[in-house]
Amino acid sequence: MQLVSPALPIGAYAYSQGLEYAVHAGWVHDEVTALEWLQGLSRFALGTLDLPLLWRLHGAWGAPDAAAVQRWNAQLLAARETAELRAEELHLGRALARVLVELGIHEAGQWQGAGPGFATMFSLAAVRWRIGAGEAMSGYLWAWAENQVLAAVKLVPLGQSAGQRLLYRLSQDMPAIVERARSLGDDAIGVGVFAPALASALHETQYTRLFRS
Predict the structure, then answer these.
(1) Could you tell me the residue ranges of all domains in the chain?
(2) Range list of β-strands (E), the chain
């Protein structure tokens, strides 16, 4: 619960992952379109990239297999389509590494200057704290959904009740998303949506911004 808490001091609240531009462009403008946007990302980005790699990273840390950790971490970073998304990945990974060092997982310190992805450090924490891979994947997806819903509440804007409805609908999909992620082969890992990458790229030159991505 500490690992998925919004109070974890890694700065995830500063990133919208392209949602800010999607609202600016009118692609997302109410509760219905916000749900469609977030469901698409959870199913065909988080569910087909982050979670399958988190599954593999969890196994690599537990083996232990340092070469596999390096390989899956490199694939995670390479899959980030824009400068903003890559910067977000590195910022969250390094921030979580600092937190883990303070909590006694000292091997995370070796990664602070090495460009760790967020899922790489998240999976390390899960293994060292004896959190199962399935539970870690569910927690990772929940933490992402909570952060994105909070961004949607601010940006669209939406009311707090609408935000809770969004979280409830997204949580209903999570068991199936996690189960599918566990079954994907190596050659099926990747992002299957293009609008968020386009939004992220256009966000870099957006005139006014509240979020860093």
Answers:
(1) 39-203
(2) none
Q: Say what the pTM is.
A: 0.97
Instruction: Burial-class residue 24 by CB neighbours within 10 Å (0-12, 13-18, 19+).
Output: middle
pLDDT computed for residue 74 by the predictor: 98
**Local structure of 43: helix, strand or coil:** helix
Contact 38, 148 (CB under 8 A): yes
Residue 201: Cβ-neighbour burial (10 angstroms; 0-12, 13-18, 19+): middle
The token duo for 67 is 């070469």
Report the C-alpha gap between 97 and 112 in whole angstroms: 6
Low-confidence residues of the chain: pLDDT under 50:
none
- CATH, domain range 39-203: 1.10.4190.10
pLDDT for 113: 86
- Report the distance separating Cα 29 and Cα 128, nearest Å: 42
